[in-house]
Design a protein that fits this description.
Elements (H helix, E strand, L loop, with lengths): L1 E2 L4 E2 L12 H15 L6 H8 L6 H14 L4 H17 L4 H16 L5 H18 L4 H13 L4 H14 L4 H13 L3 H14 L4 H13 L3 H14 L4 H17 L3 H15 L4 H14 L1 H15 L8 H11 L2 H14 L20 H9 L4
Antiparallel strand pairs: 1-2
């Protein structure tokens, strides 16, 4: 333990524990530290720290592997996460946290649109309820409950309660702080969000997902330089981290467009189409020629023409991209059609309707205002 600001070491101790006692380690250390620094624990805290349970060492390893793959946030890794969490359950069926992991993985399959929510949500809640039944004080279970309350149900009150409960049980969970920061950004409580994001990143500064989530908070806040710095750092640690790569490109394009650097915006768009291979040469060249000859609005309009001519297979414009492009064109009715579609289908980005800077174009639009009211985000 160090004295903050003095860089003075107050206490140090080595610990060696058997792997099957790892779940008790945090409680044991917490009790020792509270005694060393004369913190008086409440009866409830004393009771919680007195709880003990062993864990199958192989189950613990499988659980950690499940968390590792979950944090990659892509469908292939999510399936691996499911398999590892199930393996942990098979080895230690009375341990709550792997059930919470399964619930979280099933939830993301639905949020990412990999599987229909009619298939994923029953599994999400089955495993989440099992986790809470086995251990009502599982910080992981309350963390997963918070994620689902916010991004599946849009139940802001229950989501915040679950985040705070999880952080009360484990204040050192970096990702819980960072997802709570995202929730706070959705609520337009940016000062609190940045505080939570800073706490989360400080707890695990080299975790790619922590860096990625932090970068998104900074991007939503309009702090593009910081966002790009942290997203690039995430990719320097894991070059294949798609979440960071996608958000880095989105942030770079947002910065370029908002600053009026349309040349850079189209260069970034060109690079994206070449990297992903979802535009043919004819469509790409037509867009770039329209931009160079007539300006950025003409270039964006040409994207729609090429998409209509060639189709999504070789000139892809996904719904999210169409929404953003229509906003840039000032066609707010068509943009709202896609925004309302996101709402009806329960897309993950719906929670960010009130805070995403792209939607600032719509701040006076009656349909947008009605949508925020429906979601209790007004």
């Amino acid at each position: 333990i160090y004295a903050v600001g003095k860089e003075q070491q107050l206490w140090v101790q080595d610990f060696r524990v058997a792997k099957n006692q790892i779940l008790n380690f945090y409680n044991d250390v917490s009790k020792i530290i509270s005694e060393e620094i004369n913190i008086v624990l409440s009866p409830q805290e004393e009771s919680m720290l007195a709880e003990t349970r062993t864990v199958d060492p192989e189950a613990y390893d499988a659980y950690l592997m499940g968390k590792f793959f979950w944090e990659k946030l892509d469908p292939v890794s999510m399936q691996k996460a499911l398999d590892y969490f199930q393996q942990a359950i098979d080895l230690d069926p009375e341990w709550a946290d792997p059930y919470a992991g399964l619930a979280n993985a099933w939830g993301l399959f639905g949020l990412f649109g990999v599987l229909p929510k009619s298939q994923t949500l029953p599994n999400t809640y089955k495993y989440l309820n099992k986790a809470l039944e086995l251990d009502p004080n599982s910080a992981q279970a309350h963390y997963v409950k918070a994620i689902n309350a916010v991004w599946q149900e849009w139940d802001w009150e229950q989501g915040e309660k679950a985040f705070l409960k999880s952080l009360e049980l484990n204040p050192n969970d970096a990702l819980c702080h960072l997802y709570y920061a995202h929730f706070l950004m959705c609520m337009r409580r940016s000062e609190e969000a940045i505080k939570q994001a800073n706490l989360g990143l400080k707890l695990d500064p080299l975790k790619p997902l922590a860096l990625g989530l932090y970068g998104v908070v900074m991007s939503l806040e309009g702090e593009y330089e910081s966002a790009i710095l942290h997203l690039e750092k995430a990719l320097s640690i894991d070059p294949n981290f798609g979440f960071a790569a996608a958000n880095l490109l989105g942030t770079q394009m947002g910065e370029a467009y908002n600053s009026g650097d349309y040349e850079r915006w189209f260069e970034l768009w060109k690079k994206k189409t070449l990297d992903l291979g979802h535009w043919n040469d004819e469509g790409r060249e037509a867009v770039l020629n329209a931009f160079h000859e007539k300006g950025h609005i003409a270039g964006i309009e040409e994207m729609f023409k090429m998409n209509e001519k060639y189709g999504n297979e070789v000139c892809l414009l996904g719904d999210g991209v169409k929404l953003e492009r229509y906003l840039k064109l000032g066609d707010y009715d068509k943009a709202m059609d896609y925004l309302e579609k996101d709402y009806e289908t329960g897309q993950m980005q719906t929670a960010y309707f009130a805070t995403n800077p792209y939607y600032s174009y719509l701040k006076d639009n009656p349909r947008y205002i009605d949508l925020l009211k429906k979601m209790n985000l007004e």
